[in-house]
């Protein structure tokens, strides 16, 4: 393992740090905000500032032994009902969510010096919603959904390429239907935490918790 100290950048000078953080966070983080509306505002800013995939998020689940698992996926929808993503239902995350239908999300936007953590219950989207999103995907991605046994052992790259070719021949130039093993999930948030970088690690953390009467807010020490 490398011991090259240049792999870890040095901390910025105090004046530079204050300047960088203050320029990134010019506005206060208000507890009166609706958390989903605030999230959409931050997501819009991320799409404008991140080099790519401003909608990328870490999805954390647990397996049958209670061991945590995490991977990056793409957010494909957000509204008052929650956060939507799609996957192969036979993948590791698909099986884990079927057995333990709750999860956590993390959005980290380095360019904005912000992150959002979300926790909540997970439920399948409707077949109509899954069909509509699948139909919007590029044809090669649709064929790939039929060809890949996601998360399961693969002999070599040729095995995947062969299955892609077979799926392509199967559907020809016709419409590619949604595979029965491919759909989506919606996470309904019960807790959302908004984090912003502030000078000298005195970061700002605002937590929203969903109660019967609506959202409550509290601040946390950094």
Strand content: 25-35%
Report the total helices: 6
Number of strands: 9
CATH architecture of the domain at 34-126 and 182-220: Roll
Give the CA-based shape.
Answer: globular
| Low-pLDDT windows of residues | none
Overall pLDDT level: 89
By oligomeric state, this entry counts as: single chain
Provide key terms for this protein.
222 residues; Pnp Oxidase, Chain A; 6 helices; globular
Q: What would you say this structure looks like, in words?
A:
- The chain has a domain of 132 residues: Pnp Oxidase, Chain A (Roll), CATH 2.30.110.10.
- The protein is 31% helix and 33% strand.
- The protein has 6 helices and 9 strands; from the N terminus they run ααββββαββαααβββ.
- Strand 1 and strand 2 form a beta hairpin.
- Helix 5 crosses helix 6.
- The longest helix is centred in the first third of the chain and has 15 residues.
- The mean pLDDT is 89.
């Amino acid at each position: 393992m490398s011991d090259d100290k240049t792999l870890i950048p040095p901390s910025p000078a105090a004046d530079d740090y204050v300047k960088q953080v203050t320029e990134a966070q010019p506005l206060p983080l208000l507890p009166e905000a609706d958390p989903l509306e605030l999230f959409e505002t931050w997501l819009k800013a991320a799409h404008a500032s991140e080099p790519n995939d401003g909608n990328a998020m870490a999805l954390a689940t647990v397996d049958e032994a209670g061991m945590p698992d995490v991977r990056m996926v793409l957010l494909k929808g957000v509204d008052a009902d929650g956060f939507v993503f799609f996957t192969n239902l036979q993948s590791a995350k698909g099986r884990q969510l079927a057995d333990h239908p709750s999860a956590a999300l993390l959005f980290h936007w380095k360019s904005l010096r912000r992150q959002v953590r979300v926790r909540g219950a997970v439920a399948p989207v409707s077949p109509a919603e899954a069909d509509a999103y699948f139909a919007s995907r590029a044809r090669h991605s649709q064929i790939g959904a039929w060809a890949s046994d996601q998360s399961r052992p693969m002999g070599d790259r040729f095995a995947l390429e062969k299955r892609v070719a077979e799926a392509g021949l199967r559907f020809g130039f016709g419409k590619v239907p949604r595979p029965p093993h491919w759909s989506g999930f919606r996470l309904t948030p019960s807790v959302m935490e908004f984090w912003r970088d502030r000078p000298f690690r005195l970061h700002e953390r605002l937590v929203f918790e969903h109660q019967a009467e609506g959202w409550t807010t509290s601040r946390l020490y950094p």
